[in-house]
Amino acid sequence: MSYNPSLLNFMREKYPSGTRLRLESMNDPFAPVPPGTEGTVNLVDDACGIHMKWDNGRTLALIPGEDSFTVIPQPFHTLKLYMPLAVNLYERDEYGSLDDDPIELGGREVLEYEDSIFSAILRERRPESQRGLMQYYGKNDTLNQKVQSYVFTVEKVNGSLMGVAECRIQGELTDNELEMLKDTISGQASDGFGEGFEQRYIKIPDGGIYVSLWSSEKSWKIQTQDELEQQGQQMGGMTMGGMS
Fold this sequence. Notes:
By secondary structure, the chain is an alpha+beta fold.
């Protein structure tokens, strides 16, 4: 039997290698796996059969539509995705007025204003949904199922202040799902949450700052902790050991 490629891709994303399943019943007249047996997905073949490594040592595959099974929920964990901040400082002149031309601050200079920026982000958040900004993700796909929520915050990394998307994840994301998550977070950083936040005037003792989570600079990108560490090593041995 041939399957639609989109269905096959959906099955492989829904039941990636490592997914834990519990068997309810197997339509095999000869030697079925007993109901209640738990196991781990090995792969989904081209006919959508789910190849299993059952905890009792069996390897009999599941046939969707014939066999009945449920996914064993995986525990939640936090995934942090990091992005550079763009911060402009408007100082006060001798008359107490803000200068027209801002000073662009580096990540280390911004650390002085960490508490003020964090407080401003908290004020910008909308508390009506437990899903945070994930509530605006409009697709009913595996990413929507795995990512419970994400919110923006800031964090000290290697002596600099960075923007962070703090994501609540169930299970593990595929490479494709991770890229999709980065894309939707990038959209919120530039045109959604971030668009409103970058217009918020943050008062500081020597004037005020405006903070952007996104930048049009080519160097701007969203990275995982591992990706950030690899970049740091390429730039001279920096690691995430400097995180607060």
